[in-house]
Design a protein that fits this description.
The chain is α/β, with parallel strands linked by helices. It contains 14 helices and 9 strands. Strands 3-2-1-4-5-6 form a 6-stranded parallel beta sheet, sandwiched between helices. GO terms for molecular function: NAD binding; NADP binding; oxidoreductase activity.
């Protein structure tokens, strides 16, 4: 099977590499051609060219405007959609996926949404959590590709159900990073080693799986290491929080914890941490004092507990 990958951000690149290593023939397209060429895989000139060269197209894009730019227009994926299967993995609102699905179907293609839980490490090892939305027969058609990428695939319902679930599972994760920073701030006066503290929190009832997985990155951030590779950037988390709030507003659902978390993340971004890994969020907040404004150097020095 020849599979196209549209979008080579961190997750798109990891998915392309995983499928290639699994023996699939992979063609890639990215807005920046240099990033596409760096993969060493066959490169399509345009999204339309990508669809024309492949049977299945997997898209992993940053937000709704990026989806519009890639799917629509004379050079977009929709221009060559007839007979193709599209697996859309971006984290966007359900209504965005539903509108896109309708347009793909009108163009003669098949559409399945499958946003995923997990970052680049699980993507490279085929251990993502797939949250699929679409007709049962269409999801079954997508399974051979998804099974290369996911340890578990859940068919959540029609198109839009996957997007709803992805926003839901991300909310407690994003809130955790802020709450963990606040928790660390409460014990910084004890003078404990950051690595010891992270291990202690990981063993408590409130320690989520992500703290075990990201322990080394969190310790490095707390210790002042500025070079932790970003697997989930603070600015991407801000985008997800805004998307959650938009969805909550649409349905009349108050999300006060998500709203306040976004305020904190916005401050960290203003302080220059937007492109940093999520591990830097607790490091930033652990050094906060009442009345402090954004401090770009907040994680430049080692955090002392």
């Amino acid at each position: 099977m020849r599979i196209g990958i549209a979008g080579l951000g961190k997750m798109g690149a990891a998915i392309a590499a995983r499928l290639n290593e699994a023996g699939e023939e992979v063609v890639v397209w990215n807005r920046s051609p240099l990033k596409a060429e760096a993969t060493g895989l066959r490169v399509a000139a345009t999204p339309r060219d990508l669809a024309e060269q492949t049977e299945t197209v997997v898209s992993m894009l940053f937000d709704s405007p990026a989806l519009q730019a890639v799917f629509y227009g004379e050079s977009g994926l929709l221009a060559a959609a007839r007979g193709k299967l599209f697996i859309e993995m971006s984290t966007v609102r359900p209504e965005t996926q539903q509108a896109l699905a309708a347009d793909v179907q009108r163009a003669g293609g098949t559409f399945v949404e499958c946003p995923v839980g997990g970052t680049t490490g699980p993507a490279r090892s085929g251990q993502l959590l797939g949250l699929a939305g679409g007709e049962a027969a269409d999801v079954d058609r997508a399974r051979p590709v998804l099974e290369r990428l996911c340890r578990r695939i859940e068919h959540m319902g029609p198109v839009g159900a996957g997007a709803s679930t992805k926003l839901a599972i991300n909310l407690p994760l994003l809130v955790f990073w802020q709450s963990f920073g606040e928790a660390l701030a409460l014990v910084r006066h004890l003078g404990k080693d950051p690595a010891w503290l992270v291990q202690l929190f990981a063993e408590t009832a409130g320690g989520p799986n992500v703290l075990k997985v990201k322990a080394a990155a969190v310790v490095a951030a707390l210790s002042g290491d500025p070079s932790v590779a970003a697997t989930f950037e603070i600015d991407a988390m801000r985008k997800d929080l805004r998307t959650m709030l938009e969805e909550g507003n649409l349905h009349g659902i108050p999300l006060p914890v998500a709203a306040q978390t976004l305020v904190a993340f916005d401050e960290a971004s203003v302080a220059g941490l937007g492109g940093r890994d999520c591990a830097y969020m607790p490091a930033y907040w652990a050094e906060k004092r009442l009345g402090d404004g954004p401090e770009p150097q907040a994680v430049a020095a080692s955090v002392t507990f």
